[in-house]
Amino acid sequence: MNLLYALPEAVAQTVFLPEDRARLGWRTHVLAQPAQGDFAWEALDPALLAEVEVLVTGWRTPRASEAMVEAMPKLALVANASGGVHQHLPDLLWQRGVRVVTSSHALGWGVAEYVLAVMLLGAKRAFWLAQGVRERAQWREETDCFGGSFELFGTEVGLVGAGQSGQHLLRLLREFECRLSVYDPYVSDAVLAAHGARRAESLEALFEQCRVVSIHAPLNERTRHLIRGEHLRRLPQGAVFINAARAGLVHEGELVEALQSGRFVACLDVGLEEPPAPDHPLRTAPNVFYTPHIAGAIRENRFRMGRLVLEEVERFLDGAPLRHEVTLNALATVA
Predict the structure, then answer these.
(1) Residue 142 above 90 pLDDT?
(2) 110-131 tens-digit pLDDT
(3) Which of 246, 251, 302, 324 is flagged as catalytic?
(4) Each residue of 212-251: pLDDT tens digit?
(5) Extended beta strands in 6-145, E state
(6) I need a labelling partner for 17 at 20 to 30 A (CA). Which of 168, 211, 226, 259 fits?
């Protein structure tokens, strides 16, 4: 089958190991390699587009217009080497019967590892203790800062969303005997039961009951600003709030305002603007631990995503069931 890479070479090199890219070349006829600069749909020859059957997309793939989809009448599979797909794929693809797979399952492992780490260190106020030791000649003076430290083991943990990264995290948290609550209208009771979690009665109840809350929901028009100040103010004294999903899920202004109480700490890996301005209040707030969107994007995890894409393309070519397909109905649950 004819394959086209719709992403820059600079991205492809960070996602595909040489041997995985070679395997894709052995199994398909590559019509166009990744672009040397930015990828642009308009730069492609219409005659070439007409022959595309498998499309590989990823980070820095610009959104395809419906006209561009119509220009690829033979397209049968889109294999996405990043997490989200609705940023660059129109609904027309699914309506035409094109199958879409994404590597968010592989990305989710990295996010889950990051979240577990900041849960443990945030609960014990390790970030703030280390800062005090380094900058203020302190020793244990920061132990009780921002509501006080606590053990993660056995505590109440709440997840907003239980997709790929959320379910990976639930598996990791079982080892800590945490009491797990999930707010997710799409996850089944069977999945929750398999992870030893219970369904939160409401978003408000989850924030009120849980000492640790982590966001794992997808960002779309229904979930934008899902988390507001009214939820954050319900957090117990000393709570840890984590967002390594999408910044737009939380009303930023109301998060900044809620943090001013000093009642809880926030561990953030995403921002509305990246990088944020040097004087951005989330950069300067004393009770915020802010990292530069690295939770799921570490080198090994990126190559895991590329391997997943390779394996899904091979399954498609062999007529085997796809393991990571995104249907049109499932778009609301994909980050």
Answers:
(1) no
(2) 899 999 999 999 999 999 999 9
(3) 246
(4) 999 999 888 899 999 999 999 999 999 999 999 999 999 9
(5) 29-32, 54-57, 77-80, 99-102
(6) 168
By the 10 Å C-beta count (0-12 exposed, 13-18 middle, 19+ buried), 232 is classed as: buried
Which one is catalytic: 135, 274, 299, 300? Answer: 274
Report residue 112 as tokens.
Answer: 């889950």
Instruction: Considering the candidates 293, 314, 315, 325, report the single residue annotated as catalytic.
Output: 293
Q: What is the DSSP string of 123-136?
A: HTTHHHHHHHHHHS
Which position has the token pair 């610009």? 62
pLDDT of residue 306: 94
Q: Is 324 a catalytic residue?
A: no
DSSP string, 84-103: -STTT--THHHHTT-EEEE-
Q: Per-residue pLDDT averaged across 301-325, rounded?
A: 94
SS3 120: helix
CA dihedral sign, ordered 68, 70, 72, 77:
positive
- Residues 236, 154, 169, 148: what is their CA dihedral angle, to the nearest 10 degrees? 40
Average pLDDT, the chain: 93
Q: What DSSP character marks residue 286?
A: T
137's CB contacts (< 8 A; 6+ apart) are none
The residue behind tokens 């939820």 is 231
| Catalytic-residue membership of 208 | no
Pairing mode, if any, of strands 99-102 and 197-199?
A: unpaired
Say how many Å lie between the first and final Cα of the chain, rounded: 29
Pairing of strands 212-215, 288-290: unpaired
Specify the amino acid at residue 31.
L
Query: Does 141 participate in catalysis according to the annotation?
Result: no
Task: Tell me how far apart the 2 most distant CA atoms of the chain are, in Å.
Answer: 68
Per-residue model confidence as pLDDT tens digits over 180-212:
999 999 999 999 999 999 999 999 999 999 999
Residues 6+ apart with CB under 8 A from 261: 233
CA angle 146, 179, 191 (to 5 degrees): 125
Q: How confident is the model at residue 107 (pLDDT cuts 50, 70, 90)?
A: confident
